[in-house]
From TrEMBL:
InterPro entries: Cell_wall_metabolism_enzyme, Dup_hybrid_motif, M23ase_b-sheet_dom. One of its GO terms (molecular function) is hydrolase activity. Gene3D superfamilies: Glucose Permease (Domain IIA). This is Murein DD-endopeptidase MepM/ murein hydrolase activator NlpD. It comes from the Bacteria.
Amino acid sequence: MKAFSQVIFLVCLINGSLIFAQNNYPQNYFRNPLNIPIQLAANFGAVRSNHFHMGLDMRTNSQENLPVVASADGYVSRIKVERYGFGNAVYVTHPNGYTTVYAHLNKYFDKLDEFVKEKQYKDEKWEQDITFSPNQFPVTKGQLIALSGNTGGSAGPHLHFEIRDTKTEECINPLLFGFNIPDGIAPIISGLYWYDRRFSTYEPGANGIAVKKAGNVYTSNVIQVNSPSISFAIKAVDKANQGFNLGIYDAELFMDGKLIYNFKIDKVHYDDTRYLNGCIDYPKFVRDKMSIQHLSTLPGMKLENYSSGSGGIINLQDNEIHNIEIVLKDVKGNTSRLTTKVQLTTNSGKISSGDKTVSPNEGKTIKTDNAEINLSKNAVYDAVNFNMSEKSDAAAVSNAVVLNNSSIPVHDYYTVKIKPNRKLSNEEKDKMVIELNYGSDKNIIKPKWNGDWAEGQFNRLGTVRLLLDNSLPSVSPSWKDGAIVSSGSLRLKGTTKIGDIESFRAELDGKWLRFARVKDDFVYVFDEKCPKGSGSHTLKVTTTNTAGNTNTQTFSFSR
């Protein structure tokens, strides 16, 4: 990732208030993309599962179909239509070198919506990723470009808004551009933790410290540690004025008045957003749903210029009491401070690494009798004592292979190989899937075969096994077969025994019909392809699941 541009803050004291001006980004160039005051449900850099939140989530008063307008003059340079992620999204490129992104939309403005629809019918494909030239869809500041919604990976009606550098496609913190969002609340600290950095932060893990609050100043008792090499982490949120838990923008760690570590979340590229897992206590996040951010750099965390200082590792060379100060700020400059003291009391000795330790920046292959995992040099953020084992599984065509545990993150995709527990025919191999169970969910893929070994790639740890799937996917209609449909849409609920519906095709009276994928359902909103009074119709639906099994179903209805 390219270096962060430095944001220079001009600070002046007027009537006892701090005023912050960000010099590197145009102020008030971009307007609010909604016609209601901005209220944030999430900010840039907030902790999410396996990624930083890369924009602002703007509340739409729990409603859909609010007008979304262009934040500045420019042109629609791209749209996306996808099941998860952004759902329906519009990208507007501006002449000042930035691109704004508007996501989870229900509908594009009429001319653009018509263009996308024609492309979908021409391609006979609902999902789209279309780029445009500057003269196709020019827009002016404040022009309607879409209606807000709840599509894609959205968990409730809102608008996701981003500002990107057009050339690098790096996402920039939109709050640096001068949006008028009242905020007089300093970050709230609820926990402090220390780690023995002679070995991995994953084992033995975090040591919690009780924190007391007095105004915007937090304190704790003297922290007595048994290691000469430690680091800290903080549990905190930024509330702004609107009640939602927002992410921390800026954190500084001082020991005896010297800056040891600082992070500031100004700019992140989507290629680097997964490094979030190396900035937090990932086991705590997975097991306890707690967002604890390290005030140090893990050895495999390579997000450039996210942090500064000496890396956050504190080396205690005596038994004296040392002063610790942690300073948290939001973009508006609202500040909280935590002051405490630390003292080395005893030295418990260092835990040695075993032969199955996976270290950052070193690839590793680990094997059992019937399985193998290949981890790249970028796989881990901190050392992992990697435990891999097999256990019998009556429901599978292999042993269940335990890949360490799901509370340890991996940065990129690894390859896992599994050997079946019996000889398989070619037909059986063709109907095989690999299931990864990581506790909160499952990921099921079709493997590649290398002789008698099934191979697959995943980017989370858990338990993997081979499953034979001869079942058919299916859809069930929201109407009775042959009935008159008076509602505004057709809805089909998709079902699979194992895996997912990977392919869906609907034909109305022999012609492709545009169904949108809404989570596990498929929805067609009636249009000119099937108007009222058009009589009886036959709908043929063909679905294919992860294993490659295909099912064709036929339904009828009248309009």
